[in-house]
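anyone seen this seq b4? input:
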Amino acid sequence: MEREIYVSREIVGLGHNNAAKLIKKAITAALDAEGVDAPCIISVMLTDDEGIRSVNSEFRGIDRATDVLSFPLNELTAGEFDADSCERDLDTGAVMLGDMMISVPRCEAQGEEFGHGFEREVMYLAVHSTLHLLGYDHVDEGEMKKQMRAREKFIMGDKYDD
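predicted toks r here
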């Protein structure tokens, strides 16, 4: 099973040399934990606060920077991955799960603020966003948010900080 995880930088030289490797590792862990057993494609854009603020404003009507944005291509049920209900790449047949955007400066600041550093924070944001691509949400404080937090904690293992 081949997973295509594309990580690109909106700004040349932005961020950390190991960011792409950490993101791919985190996404792979989330896909494994969620039972995604079909070839799939995810694209990740690393940007700055201005870049993510612009996209957040355009697509969500929220004119401020955030740490991560997720753009799922499918309407999936959390915890019940179904490759047959997903959009497919016409050339390869791979499931197209969607796109994510991560603000590197926000990730650096949060890693420092929470005391666990950039590496753990970028991996957490990649796991969090992958779960969004797989149908998880946390718009309210109910069961879905608890379920999503539990999955994040499980996937991150000992790297998770409450």
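The mean pLDDT is 93. DSSP finds five helices and four strands in the chain. kinda curious what u guys think
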